[in-house]
Structure formats: structure tokens, C-alpha cells
């Protein structure tokens, strides 16, 4: 104890204790000042009150062109409400990170009033008990009813017989084409639109002609840095084949992939790269640039890339459903939907939230211009939608759209898409063989199938 | 302890009982000073760690209330058999192996060089240190741009040298981690650099002058003066660096999110994915505990090695 410092004399002008006391008082004042404005997040957190009373908070996952289009729709909602403070919207990076945030915010009892979810993910959120059911009464608050929505999407919005999501659109994987290159390659019909392509041979012929005309490639699609895109490409082709079984079944408890068909499909996809018809390693911006600059005839991605294509000056392009190369028409797709995360809500809050959803649905034409096929029938059946070209040219894909199989680890941007998509990408890049890829997909999926369901 | 305490004793003789009271007061005030830290330590470190350890024996799900069913060592058993877990542990180790040697050696070299610059030292110090103060999000954006497949800066440079189809760094499983390591070295070298620079400026100039008079070459001066005199700095840098590398999360999450596939998924990413994305908090707790054991083991080994070195010296 002899290292104890001598006590300071009583005459010291500013003792440590009085300094501390002063500091505490100042800090306390600061805290009071900080919590005085009752809208501050700190105050709301401490008191457990609503973050922004009178405001709709809205979370979404729309980047790129979708994000820009959404901003116009949100601004329109604010204009309708006559106040810029009527809405607080936040956009997050899509996929697993987004759904993790929605889940944790709901568990922490601070979710947004309304959020966007893919239908393939909403069922898992519902199973986890994180969503409010969308009853007829809730719909009626905004003057909506079940008959207002396309039947396929409405059925996909249900979990164990209860509706948990309000579908906004269907977004299929589509084919974009450079009109100038396709004209030079003789691929256009008399109406100036792409002539129908049928069968693997027809596809390879079209790609060969496109490659000759462009001097680059026949078709491009991302093979790196976009696992979901790889999965969409593979899923589209695989499900076009007779006898193809879902990759997983029984809500993800069993792996039911047809290994022979999957191997053959992957080998065919790789052969297009080996023939020089498609690039082996390219990401989405790179694949787009190749088509936009006339170095490729085709580009494949989700229809939402239409906004990016439209922003390219002097680009003449078209869109169509991805052709049927095998036995039956099929394209990978999903739907965006509005969900109401579970929380204590007053009737006014619910009313406000549903009013916001209704406003978004009513602006469906703006959303459809972004490429999405509306599921809200008053928009889908409207002449306004039919007049949007080329976005309405693939509207019938909703009839044969293939959604991801249900499982706690599946859905858009999920572990399932990452596992399968990344392996598909390796095949296209020539870093693994189709046989090894299918074996690896099967073994990883079996690990998930054997993991107890956390929901 | 009370009656024999010397030093801060008041000059006036006091009775033993009053003296004991003063010592008790000192002890109380010591506890009071520790209290704020202890409070946060118990609430946010010790408490959650204990909860984690308990949860690792349950099939706890984040979306279900309570801990769920007691399943004994099942979480540990399935982790030990899971290739995904071991590959994520390997990726963490891989990142540590890729980053620690360059971050220690290069920061030393750059510090020695910058210290020898006759003028413009401030510029060089700033040049090496500036990346370190940038947030990980900014670093990730910069390097994702550099590594962009086909059209990025690095791909463009490779094309100048005649490689028409350059390998995308972050898109290729075998080199994605190297790409992240390179970005990390550029980002964090400034911290070690500053530590070394401070160490270098503590070495008295006379030592070098004496060595020069004795005819030592610059290399001999570095080998026999600088390196031994900086050994304490090196120990510190090495320890801080190993711990930082084992905690790798931000850059990987932002640059590849563990991809392509799971080829850059590190242990912490595996744990967050399992716990928060897959809701399997029990399994994530077990994985955290295993990672904790690994880090403790490495720290103990390092301690033993250091003790052995000190004995040898």
C-alpha cells in the first residue's frame, strides 16, 4: 500500500472530485437535452415508444434501376399525404443480409411498419412467427380483397392456409437482345422483333449468328459475383426438361435432384462457353456492357435490368421471355411482396401501413415500367400496362414461372441459391466438371437437409 | 495491512480502528473506480459469454422463446463433423497466414525507409497511415472496384500485358482470399508502421554513429542494432496482428460475403450466418466456443514461446 499517492491538499484549486462531479452534471444535462426532443431514437429506445409517430417506416431491398423507380413512387406517396415526413424509407443490400435485418428488428420489437419480401422468403418469416396475418379485414382497410390479385401469386403468399404477404409483382428471368446486332445477324422477324427461338439447336444457331454479327459473343450473363443469377440460369434450363424433379422436397428434408439431368444441363451450359458463344468469366455489369456496346447479341438477367438498359444512350434493345430450349416452357421467377412485420399496432398504424401499400399498388404502372409483371389485377388487365413495350411482352411467363422450392434454407438470395449458384458458376468458368459440381451440390444440400429446422 | 501501512499515513497518530476504516474507504473507492468498467464488462461481455456457453448445449433458435431443448453435446458433435465449419476455421487461419507476415515485415521495412528519408517524412508517414483511418466500407468499395471482373482496374492492367481473359480475383475460389488479404495489408499497414516508427525514433542516434565509426555497413546496423532494439515493438505488433487477423469479418462480409460459394467464409462469418441468418443460435454458440478455444490456445502457445525466448536470452 506504500505506492498509494499522497492525498492532494485541500487548497488545490480544482480537485479531482469536483471536476468529476462537474463532468457528470454536464453529461447528465446533455442526456436530458438529447432525450428532450421526443422523436429522437435514443428517447424512443429508452421509453420503448414508437420511433416516428404518424409516419410509415418502410424497408426495402431495391437497388439499381428498381431503387430509382421506387424513389419516384415514394415521392408520389409523400405528395399524396402532403408531407415529406409521412414516410421514412430505407433500402438495404438484398438477400440474406436483408432478411437477417428484418428478422432481428422484428425480434427486437423495432421493425418497420411495412417491408418488402420475396414470396419465397416470406413463408419462412411467417413460419418463424415474424409476420402479421393479412386477413380480409386488414385488406379491407385499404379497400382491397383477395380477388384483386393474380391467383398463382396469391396462393404463393400463403403459409399453412393463412395469407402473410401482399404480392406486388412477378419477376421472371428474361432474354434481352441488342436489336442492331440481331438485325445484322438476321434474327429479327418481319415485325422487327426477335424471331422465336426453339430448341437447343435453334439457340446455338442464334448464338453463332449473333457472335458473327457482333464480333464478340452470342450471349452474355454473369458467371461471377452473382450466385443467384447462376442459379436462375440453371433452374430455368433444368426445369424445362421432361422428368426434372425439384432439387429439394418435403420442405427441404430430402434432396430429390435428378443428378443425370442436372449433369447434362450443366455440360450443355459449359459447352456454349467452350464454343466461344458465351464468356467464361464476367460479372453482371461486364455482361451488360458487352451487350449494350454491341459485342454480344443477347444478355440474360432478371427483367429489372430494363431500367439500366434504357439509360444507355443510343441503345436499341428488346426483351422477351427466355426461349424454351427443351421440352416444356419454364423460367425461374419470384415475386416481391409487402409484409407487415409482427408488432403491437394501433388501428391507425395499421390503416396508415395499408394505405401506403395501396398507394404503391396503384402506382403499379410505374413499377411495371421497371420490368416487373404486376400481380395486382387492376394494373395487369389495364390497357396502360399492355402498352408498355417491351416490358409487357413476357407477361405470360407468370403462367409457367418456377419458384424456388420451399425449405427453411431456400428462397431468393438464400443459402440454397448460394450453394447451387456458386457451383454452377464454377462449371461455366471451367473450374470444375459438371459431374463434380452435381456431387458437390448434392452433398451440401444433404447437409442442410439433415440439419434440424430452426423454424 | 492497516497498522503497518506506510507512505500516505497522516502525520497525526491514529487509533488502529480508525486506520482500518481509512483502508476500507480506500478499498471502497477502488471498487467505485472499477465499477463503471465492471458493470459493462459483466453486462456485455461476461453475461453474454456465459449465456452463449449455456446455449451451446441447447437447440436454441433465435425465433423461438427460451433456450429450446437440452441436447447435450449434439451441437458440438455436428460441428466437429461439419466440413463447412472446418473450412471456415481454415479460411480464418488462411487469412491470418496471408496477412501477418507481410503486415509485420513490410511495416518494419517501410518504417525504416521512411525514417531514413532526409526530407518529406511527414508526407511518407501520412501516405502509409491514411488508409488506416478509412472505414472498412470505403476500403471494400475501392478494392471491389479494383478487382471487378473483366472491366476493373486490375483486369485492365492484366489486359495491357496481353492477358485477354484475366482471372477475376474475387470470383475465383483459389485466389479470392489473396485478394482480400492484399486489400487488408494496404489498409492496416499504417498502424504497425506508426508503432515501428515510434520505436525507431526511441533508438539513440549515437548508437548508429558509434557503429558507423566502427565501420558497420547500413545492413549490419539494421541487423545488429535496429532489429534487436525493436524486439519489444515486434512482440507487440505480432500479438496485436494475430488477434486482429483472427477476428477478420468486415472486409470479407463487404467484399465477397464469404463467396464465391463459401470459399472465403471465415469463422466469424460462419457464426453470424448460423446464428442470425439461419436462426440457429445454439449451433452458433457452440461454434463461437470452439473458436474461443482456438484463440486461447494460440495465445497460450505464443506466451510459452515468449517465455522460452526470454529464458534463452
TrEMBL record, chain A:
Protein name in UniProt: Extracellular solute-binding protein
Q: Known SUPFAM superfamilies for this protein?
A: Periplasmic binding protein-like II
- Annotated signal sequence is none
From which domain of life does this come? Answer: Bacteria
Instruction: Name its species.
Output: Kineococcus mangrovi
TrEMBL record, chain B:
Indicate yes or no for the key word Electron transport: no
Which superkingdom?
Bacteria
Which CDD domains does this chain map to?
A: TM_PBP2
Question: How would you describe this protein's topology in the membrane?
Answer: Multi-pass membrane protein
Identify the residues that the record assigns to the ABC transmembrane type-1 domain, covering every copy: 89-302
Q: Where in the cell is it found?
A: Cell membrane
**UniProt region (Disordered), positions on chain:** 1-21
Q: Membrane: present as a keyword of the record?
A: yes
InterPro entries in the cross-refs:
MetI-like, MetI-like_sf, UgpAE/MalFG_permease
Listed SUPFAM superfamilies:
MetI-like
Alphabetical list of Pfam families matching this protein:
BPD_transp_1
Q: What is the similarity comment for this entry?
A: Belongs to the binding-protein-dependent transport system permease family.
What PANTHER family does the annotation carry? BLL4140 PROTEIN, DIACETYLCHITOBIOSE UPTAKE SYSTEM PERMEASE PROTEIN DASB
The protein's name in its UniProt record:
Carbohydrate ABC transporter permease
Species this protein is from: Kineococcus mangrovi
The beginning of the lineage is: Bacteria, Bacillati, Actinomycetota, Actinomycetes, Kineosporiales
Amino acid at each position: 500500500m506504500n505506492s498509494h499517492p499522497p492525498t492532494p491538499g485541500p487548497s488545490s484549486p480544482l480537485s479531482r472530485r469536483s471536476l468529476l462531479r462537474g463532468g457528470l452534471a454536464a453529461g447528465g444535462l446533455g442526456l436530458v437535452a438529447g432525450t428532450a426532443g421526443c422523436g429522437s431514437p435514443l428517447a424512443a429506445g429508452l421509453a420503448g415508444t414508437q420511433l416516428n409517430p404518424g409516419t410509415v417506416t418502410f424497408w426495402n431491398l431495391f437497388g439499381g434501376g428498381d431503387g430509382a423507380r421506387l424513389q419516384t413512387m415514394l415521392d408520389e406517396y409523400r405528395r399524396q399525404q402532403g408531407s415529406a415526413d409521412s414516410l421514412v424509407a430505407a433500402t438495404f443490400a438484398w438477400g440474406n443480409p436483408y432478411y437477417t435485418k428484418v428478422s432481428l428488428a422484428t425480434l427486437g420489437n423495432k421493425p418497420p411498419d411495412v417491408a418488402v419480401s420475396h414470396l419465397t422468403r416470406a413463408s419462412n418469416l411467417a413460419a418463424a412467427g415474424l409476420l402479421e396475418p393479412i386477413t380480409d379485414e386488414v385488406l379491407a382497410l385499404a379497400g382491397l380483397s383477395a380477388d384483386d390479385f393474380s391467383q398463382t401469386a396469391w396462393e404463393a403468399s400463403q403459409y399453412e392456409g393463412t395469407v402473410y404477404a401482399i404480392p406486388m409483382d412477378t419477376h421472371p428471368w428474361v432474354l434481352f437482345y441488342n436489336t442492331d446486332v440481331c438485325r445484322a445477324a438476321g434474327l429479327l422477324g418481319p415485325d422487327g422483333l426477335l424471331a422465336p427461338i426453339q430448341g437447343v439447336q435453334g439457340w446455338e444457331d442464334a448464338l453463332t449468328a449473333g457472335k458473327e454479327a457482333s464480333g464478340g459473343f452470342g450471349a452474355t450473363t454473369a458467371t461471377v459475383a452473382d450466385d443467384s443469377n447462376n442459379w436462375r440460369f440453371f433452374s430455368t434450363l433444368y426445369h424445362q426438361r421432361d422428368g426434372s424433379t425439384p432439387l429439394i422436397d418435403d420442405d427441404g428434408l430430402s434432396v430429390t435432384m435428378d443428378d443425370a439431368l442436372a449433369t447434362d444441363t450443366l455440360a450443355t451450359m459449359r459447352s456454349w462457353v467452350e464454343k466461344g458463344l458465351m464468356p467464361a468469366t464476367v460479372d453482371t455489369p461486364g455482361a451488360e456492357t458487352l451487350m449494350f456496346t454491341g459485342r454480344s447479341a443477347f444478355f440474360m438477367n432478371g427483367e429489372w435490368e430494363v431500367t439500366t438498359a434504357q439509360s444507355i444512350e443510343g441503345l436499341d434493345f428488346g426483351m422477351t421471355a427466355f426461349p424454351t430450349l427443351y421440352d416444356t416452357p419454364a423460367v425461374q421467377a419470384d415475386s416481391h411482396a409487402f409484409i407487415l412485420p409482427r408488432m403491437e399496432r394501433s388501428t391507425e398504424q395499421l390503416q396508415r401501413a395499408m394505405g401506403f401499400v395501396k398507394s404503391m399498388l396503384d402506382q403499379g404502372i410505374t413499377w411495371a415500367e421497371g420490368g416487373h409483371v404486376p400481380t395486382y389485377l387492376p394494373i395487369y388487365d389495364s390497357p396502360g400496362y399492355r402498352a408498355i413495350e417491351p416490358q409487357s411482352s413476357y407477361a405470360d411467363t407468370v403462367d409457367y414461372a418456377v419458384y424456388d422450392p420451399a425449405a427453411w434454407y431456400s428462397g431468393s438470395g438464400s443459402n440454397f441459391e448460394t450453394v447451387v449458384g456458386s457451383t454452377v458458376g464454377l462449371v461455366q468458368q471451367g473450374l470444375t466438371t459438371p459431374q463434380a459440381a452435381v456431387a458437390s451440390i448434392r452433398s451440401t444440400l444433404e447437409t442442410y437437409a439433415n440439419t434440424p429446422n430452426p423454424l | 495491512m492497516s497498522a503497518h501501512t506506510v507512505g500516505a499515513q497522516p502525520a497525526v497518530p491514529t487509533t488502529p480502528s480508525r486506520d482500518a476504516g481509512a483502508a476500507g474507504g480506500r478499498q471502497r473507492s477502488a471498487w467505485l473506480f472499477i465499477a463503471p468498467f465492471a458493470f459493462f464488462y459483466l453486462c456485455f461481455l461476461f453475461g453474454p459469454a456465459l449465456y452463449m456457453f449455456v446455449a451451446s448445449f441447447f437447440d436454441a433458435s433465435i425465433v423461438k422463446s427460451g433456450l429450446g431443448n437440452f441436447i447435450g453435446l449434439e451441437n458440438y458433435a455436428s460441428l466437429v463433423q461439419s466440413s463447412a465449419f472446418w473450412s471456415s476455421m481454415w479460411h480464418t487461419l488462411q487469412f491470418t497466414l496471408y496477412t501477418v507476415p507481410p503486415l509485420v515485415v513490410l511495416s518494419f521495412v517501410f518504417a525504416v525507409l521512411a525514417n531514413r528519408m532526409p526530407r518529406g517524412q511527414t508526407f511518407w508517414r501520412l501516405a502509409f497511415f491514411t488508409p488506416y483511418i478509412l472505414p472498412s466500407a470505403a476500403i471494400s468499395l475501392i478494392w471491389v472496384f479494383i478487382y471487378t471482373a473483366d472491366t476493373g482496374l486490375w483486369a485492365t492492367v492484366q489486359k495491357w500485358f496481353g492477358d485477354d481473359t484475366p482471372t477475376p480475383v474475387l470470383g475465383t475460389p483459389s485466389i479470392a482470399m489473396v485478394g482480400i488479404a492484399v486489400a487488408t495489408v494496404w489498409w492496416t499497414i499504417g498502424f504497425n508502421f506508426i508503432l515501428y516508427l515510434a520505436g525507431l525514433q526511441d533508438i539513440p542516434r549515437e548508437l548508429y554513429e558509434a557503429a558507423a565509426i566502427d565501420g558497420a555497413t547500413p545492413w549490419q546496423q539494421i541487423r545488429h542494432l535496429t532489429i534487436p532494439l525493436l524486439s519489444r515493438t515486434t512482440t507487440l505488433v505480432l500479438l496485436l496482428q494475430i488477434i486482429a487477423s483472427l477476428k477478420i469479418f468486415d472486409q470479407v462480409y463487404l467484399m465477397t460475403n464469404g463467396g464465391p460459394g463459401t470459399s472465403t467464409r471465415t469463422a466469424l462469418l460462419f457464426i453470424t450466418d448460423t446464428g442470425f441468418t439461419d436462426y440457429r443460435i445454439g449451433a452458433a454458440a457452440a461454434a463461437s466456443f470452439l473458436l474461443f478455444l482456438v484463440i486461447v490456445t494460440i495465445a497460450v502457445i505464443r506466451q510459452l514461446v515468449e517465455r522460452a525466448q526470454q529464458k534463452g536470452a
